């Protein structure tokens, strides 16, 4: 079980760092890069969520305590962030051939989605870091 735990934790941290890092970067940039990063970001989000679920199964079975409550709160924020990114950046990606006015509005929405997701992922990271000490 030790190797499973180590591999799962490494995958969770690496995918989470990539996902949050690209989100933070895109929140500060123009939305042109959002479509290019959509697939890698969503792939990292899926891996982070899946490995987080496996870590929960391996480490947090039984009655929930304060640590599990804080981790669950962080997980909820992460799922909301992924949903926002999927909706806003996915809509932009699917409308690549639309009129320029529509694309401009979609780019603004995608940029706003990245900024909102960055805040939510910041809270997620804070919850994971703090959960050990509550």
What does it look like?
By secondary structure, the chain is mainly alpha-helical. It has one domain: Four Helix Bundle (Hemerythrin (Met), subunit A). The protein is 87% helix and 0% strand. It has helices at residues 2-28, 32-59, 66-94, 100-131. The longest helix has 32 residues, at 100-131. The two termini are 26 Å apart. The model has no long low-confidence stretch (mean pLDDT 90).
Category from helices, strands and their pairing: mainly alpha
Report the β-strand fraction as a percent range.
under 5%
CATH class: Mainly Alpha
The radius of gyration over CA amounts to 16 Å
Count of distinct strands: 0
Low-confidence stretches: none
- What letter string, H or E per element, gives the SSE order? HHHH
Between the first and last Cα atoms, what is the distance in angstroms? 26 Å
Tell me the helix content: over 70%
What kind of sheet is the major sheet?
none
The third-level CATH topology is Four Helix Bundle (Hemerythrin (Met), subunit A)
Q: Estimate the global geometry from the Cα principal axes.
A: elongated
Whole-number average pLDDT? Answer: 90
Query: What would you say the CATH architecture is?
Result: Up-down Bundle
* Number of continuous helical runs: 4
Whole-number total of structural domains: 1
Blueprint of the fold:
Layout: H1 2-28, H2 32-59, H3 66-94, H4 100-131
Short recap of the structure:
The protein has 134 residues and is mainly alpha-helical. The chain contains four helices and no strands. It is elongated and about 55 Å long.
């Amino acid at each position: 079980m030790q190797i499973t735990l180590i591999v799962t934790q490494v995958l969770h941290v690496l995918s989470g760092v990539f996902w949050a890092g690209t989100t933070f970067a895109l929140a500060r940039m123009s939305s042109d890069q959002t479509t290019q990063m959509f697939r890698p970001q969503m792939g990292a989000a899926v891996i982070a969520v899946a490995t987080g679920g496996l870590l929960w199964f391996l480490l947090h079975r039984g009655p929930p305590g304060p640590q599990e409550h804080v981790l669950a709160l962080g997980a909820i924020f992460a799922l909301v962030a992924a949903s926002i990114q999927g909706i806003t950046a996915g809509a932009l990606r699917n409308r690549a051939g639309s009129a320029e006015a529509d694309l401009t509005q979609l780019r603004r929405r995608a940029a706003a989605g990245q900024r909102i997701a960055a805040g939510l992922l910041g809270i997620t990271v804070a919850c994971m870091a703090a959960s050990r000490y509550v």
